[in-house]
């Protein structure tokens, strides 16, 4: 690929080398997304992939990542979306001691999202064997949304038990280990989990993380909840 003269002169790196690096970043993103069940990829990982090969130019990693983003869209049909890592509300708003499972330093990360229409994606791309995981994600996000964006671990499992999911179950027919299935949502950044030291001891809280708060997902949740509330509020009609 031939890059604009201003880009070529800025980095003084042959176009062939740039293309090779862009290709390596794309392969890394696709492989990691598949390997880690869609967990966000930290920008730091992509930057290190480039600088480890001896490229130390200040803005070169950003250039390569932007080119990878462009090609993922034009060739593979994926939107490479940047997520800004959010801090747990207790850590952000109070000075009390807390233990967060997320590092504040890992500020930026990426996920890839298919740009196909939902009906086309569902028919030709979606892995039908993992539909139950998408359902669990939707349900958990909905529960926490209705709780005001944050809920204790005890209350969350109280609601999940009503759906047949028990905290210590290790042989669920769909999810196997239910606790690990919930923990996967933390790793995928739909949720963030925080242990807060209080008068009654350590209390674990779950709240919505940046992926669940991303506009497309959050808007779908709000629309679904509004439909359910409207349905429940509809008066019964009698013949």
From TrEMBL:
<dbReference type="Pfam" id="PF01454">
    <property type="entry name" value="MAGE"/>
</dbReference>
<dbReference type="InterPro" id="IPR037445">
    <property type="entry name" value="MAGE"/>
</dbReference>
<feature type="domain" description="MAGE">
    <location>
        <begin position="64"/>
        <end position="239"/>
    </location>
</feature>
<protein>
    <recommendedName>
        <fullName>MAGE domain-containing protein</fullName>
    </recommendedName>
</protein>
<dbReference type="GO" id="GO:0005634">
    <property type="term" value="C:nucleus"/>
</dbReference>
<dbReference type="InterPro" id="IPR002190">
    <property type="entry name" value="MHD_dom"/>
</dbReference>
